[in-house]
Amino acid sequence: MRNEVLISLAILLILLVFSQFFIKIEPPKVREEMVFKEEPLLKNKDFALHPGDTLVYKTTDNYSQNFSFSVAAGSGCIWLYMEGGDFISCVKKDGTDGSNSNISLTDKTIFFFKPWMLALNDSWKWGAQGCFVIDNTTNCDINISFQVIRVDYINGKKYYVVKETFGSLIVYDWVEDDRRIVTREIGPGYEMELIE
Prior knowledge:
single chain, mainly beta
């Protein structure tokens, strides 16, 4: 009887060892994503950058650094890309890219343009909610708001000064009226400015 138990245990052990190669048990997959619920947005201008345009920004935080961006023609869109990198966005006439979001482009390195900028006017304000989705549970607890707080005229050009609020984070953008791009941005601990 003892031999039978030992043989049974040996067979069970062999089966357990070999089962690792044939039976894969994976933990259940959790679907996680961030989505935005945007208020309706009425745009009053089309995307205004053109192939051949270049933009150079200087950022200042603990140290100073320049970032250059170029604009190129695409099929049904305009390509924006960071020079020296492979960061690109294909922007349609309405200012959106493949994500169709009005909050920002898919590539967050393109900080100088966001689709909502095409809706600016002297008294404009707009908002959205950021929602975390985990499996089938949605939690919308990030309030995002944008508001023109004043209009500045610098060297004969009109600029919208926009206050962006992301929960407790506040950023100020100076958006040029003609091209609807950021020419200056001030946030917590940093400043960016268009220099070319």
